[in-house]
Amino acid sequence: MRMLLPSLLAAILALPAYAAELVMVEQDGCHWCARWNAEIGHIYPKTDEGKEAPLRRVDLRDLPDDITFASRPVFTPTFVLVEDGQELSRIEGYAGDEFFWFLLNKLLNERAAGAE
Q1: For the purposes of burial, counting CB atoms within 10 Å of the CB of 65, is it exposed (0-12), middle (13-18) or buried (19 or more)?
Q2: Is 75 exposed, middle or buried (0-12, 13-18, 19+ CB in 10 A)?
Q3: Is the pLDDT of residue 10 over 50?
Q4: Which CATH number fits domain 17-115: 3.40.30.10, 3.30.470.30, 2.60.40.10, 3.40.50.2300?
Q5: What pLDDT score was predicted for residue 4?
Q6: Which of 45, 53, 88, 113 is the least crowded, having the fewest Cβ atoms under 10 Å away?
């Protein structure tokens, strides 16, 4: 048992920490939210981006108290990159999969550059 404890602790410490999350602000009846769900929603968790910033969905009319937004989201979908409960940056709207991936990678790269 004593040998198992250090190994277990080492394994736990080796798990990736999700310091960032991608918060999707959405609402019922949002056509562009539905389009994002159809085109990207099912694959996002499997991507490198999804592993770096796991998706969290919130409703526009019921924003969580544990996130400090730079300003209240107005449009849906709005994708907010959050770290330690603070908004870092956002993407407002959805204009297709290629544009989404381009903008998201830009946000993630800016985050990484700021951490250096």
Answers
A1: exposed
A2: middle
A3: no
A4: 3.40.30.10
A5: 52
A6: 113
